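User:
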Amino acid sequence: MTGGNAVPRDALLNHTDLYHVFLHATDVEAAMALLSEHLGLNWLPVMRGTYSAWVPDGQAFTAEAVTVYSKEGPVYVELGHFPVGPMPTATDLVNPHHFGYWCDDVPSTKQALQDSDWKLEFEVGREVGGPTGSYLRSPAGLLVELVPRAIKERFEAYTRSAAQA
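Assistant: Predicted structure:
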């Protein structure tokens, strides 16, 4: 382990690529109100929808999600509830569910993490063009979402325009 702000040479992830922390919230609107009151957070519009998901055995299915990002960021707070799909449930607002990282090369980073005993839990995205998020769990239990840096500009444009609305 290194001290200060140095990234360990063998680190597969860099903290400067962290862009969101996800907290599970069964009632997203109530969680938004609570975090606004206690942490002063403001919120982008709540998103509801379905998405494609795959588990490691390759089985594909449609999942449902209710998610919202804080206007404040980076690092953004993402709240969400996944009533149908691979996202495991968690205790509401108690511990971070996962950490979202921008990634230049998701397939290579995913493989490097798996070579270091991380386990692929599931992937989400589009049926055409492949996953836009790969979720891996470290041997210590941390869950990380790898997101292609190629969509960062689109995400930032969304957060800017939604924050002004």
